[in-house]
Amino acid sequence: VQLVESGGGLVQPGGSLRLSCTAPGLAYDAYAIGWFRQAPGKEREGVSCISSSDGATYYSDSAKGRFTISSDAIKKVVYLQMDNLKPEDTAVYYCASDRYLYCSSWAFQQPGRYNAWGQGTQVTVSS
Questions:
Q1: Apex 109 CA angle, 115 and 37, nearest 5
Q2: Is the Cα dihedral 24, 74, 112, 41 positive or negative?
């Protein structure tokens, strides 16, 4: 599965961005896509995941209440709406395809579950 992220950029604290993950090879009714981020000098962190099978969505503690994941199966795009952004959200954001085709509530943040990754898009939150 090829994945391409877009929508990153520079935004002021408190602002919003919407990231897109385009996956032309995504099956219409069988996929699970996760969003990760990696800041300089830090490990890759799982942010959110969405499953097509049951519509389940999961968020990291840092993302809850501020980020919203959604998908358009016809367009084969998964979105990450990020609101009330903070400087600590600055990172390269990646989308990835879960090899098991569903999000796990306790394992969605584990990079090893994912077998295809995009190239990443930079998000910088700064005044």
A1: 85
A2: positive
Give a three-class secondary structure readout of the chain.
CCCEEECCEEECCCCCEEEEEECCCCCCCCCEEEEEEECCCCCCEEEEEEECCCCCEEECCCCCCCEEEEEECCCCEEEEEECCCCHHHCEEEEEEEECCCCCCCCCCCCHHHEEEECCCEEEEECC
**pLDDT tens digit sequence for 63-117:** 999 999 999 988 899 999 999 999 999 999 999 999 998 999 999 999 999 999 9
Question: pLDDT per residue over 30-71, tens digit each?
Answer: 889 999 999 999 999 999 999 988 889 999 999 999 999 999
Phi-psi region of 20 (alpha: psi -120 to 50; beta: other; left: phi over 0): beta
